[in-house]
Amino acid sequence: MKNLLANNFTKKTEAKTSWSYLLTMPVFLVFFSYLLVGSSYFSDIKTFLGATSLNLIILTCTFLVQNYVNTLIAQRYAGLGQTIQRVGISVLTHAILSAIFLGLVATLYIRLRLFGSTLSYMTLLIIYVINMMAIVLTMVIQETFHSLGHWKQHEVNKEKLLKENIQGQLQSLKAQISPHFLFNSLNSLSTLITEDSEKAEEFVDQMARVYRYLLQANQSTVEGDTTSHLTTLNNELNFIESYYHLLKTRYGDGLHLNISVNDKYMGHLIPPITLQLLVENAVKHNVIRPSRPLTININTTNDGLLEVQNNLQRKSVSGLENLESTQIGLANIQAKYSLLAQSKPEISPPVIENGPDYFTVTLPLIMKSM
């Protein structure tokens, strides 16, 4: 996936370069023609018109070729970390193209003495050196603006991601701390206290872990921790097991969670609360009974992706409730990955498959080195 910022920068640079060429060409064309032909350029109208027309064609073709090459190089080496490669290849390419261009000029104006030219090889060498100095200076200016633009966009994206995380985590907290959720949890706890004190103690411990994870994730984001918008898959799975324990106490044999994740992916990163949103979405919109159990599977694929799947047995709910879940849950996850992809083009968006029997969301896992 190409970097969107680099593509925008390339398009803007092409537009500015084209306008600069159109505005400066008349003066540069006359000066360039005078250097090639000599004093006779202004003394004879035929020489003036002929040399001007020929040089206009040569310069325009040269400009189009160089501009096209610039575009290819900028697209191929678009990342900020590829600046040295981009500049080095650009300088080398322009040096070769300039040499070819001046070789054509030497053939026409030195060997053939076209229009009575008095041009010498020494003058041509000076033109080549000046041309390369101008190219290098232009590239330095462009790369400076490119780096500043990339840094500015990165800061904007980071702020957007922080805001998105705050909104998503606060929404999750709001859903979990709702009176309905607390009533169900406390009611389950009350029943366990009278029936099994050991299970009641475990329930309290798991409930504390759930709220601790939610509050810590939200607190680190509010404080501006630069790593807070991602957590390890291992941390997220530990949290989801605690969350599942609370659900399991309520639904019993009506709910099953199967986790099959390759150990080598445990250190990979994922936006926090992602799995909780998906599990919550499955529980909220499907029938859960011992006779019709809801099964949620979390596993990794051979391609290093995280797959979350549940069987479909939808409740008879209003369209408004379904719309709310899509907007807050799945859309929140997609928005996080979309923002991450702007600064990390190699990150692919989540894939959602809503089939007749199963609902599946496939999430990319992010390596720490990315």
Could you describe the 3D structure shown?
With 370 residues, the chain is of the alpha+beta class. The protein has a five-stranded mixed beta sheet with strand order 2-4-5-7-6, with helices on one face. The model is unreliable at 1-6, 221-228 and 319-327 (pLDDT under 50). It is rod-shaped, with a radius of gyration of 32 Å. 68% of the residues lie in helices and 9% in strands. The protein has two domains: 4-153, no CATH class; 177-364, Heat Shock Protein 90.
Could you outline the blueprint of secondary structure elements for this entry?
Layout: H1 4-37, H2 40-43, H3 45-76, H4 83-111, H5 121-176, H6 179-195, H7 197-222, E1 231-232, H8 233-251, E2 255-260, E3 269-270, H9 274-284, E4 294-300, E5 305-311, H10 319-343, E6 351-354, E7 358-364
Parallel strand pairs: 2-4
Antiparallel strand pairs: 1-3, 4-5, 5-7, 6-7
Summed up:
Helix content is 68%, strand content 9%. The chain is of the alpha+beta class and 370 residues long. β4 and β5 (305-311) form a beta hairpin.
Strand content: 5-15%
Return the structural class.
alpha+beta
Instruction: Give the C-level CATH assignment of the largest domain.
Output: Alpha Beta
Helix content: 55-70%
> How many strands appear in the DSSP assignment?
7
| Number of structural domains | 2
Instruction: Give unreliable regions as ranges.
Output: 1-6, 221-228, 319-327
Q: What is the makeup of the main sheet?
A: 5 strands, mixed
Global outline:
rod-shaped
The number of helical runs is: 10
**N→C terminal distance:** 14 Å
Radius of gyration: 32 Å
How are the strands ordered across the major sheet? 2-4-5-7-6
CATH fold-level assignment of the largest domain: Heat Shock Protein 90
Helix/strand order: HHHHHHHEHEEHEEHEE
CATH level-two architecture of the largest domain: 2-Layer Sandwich
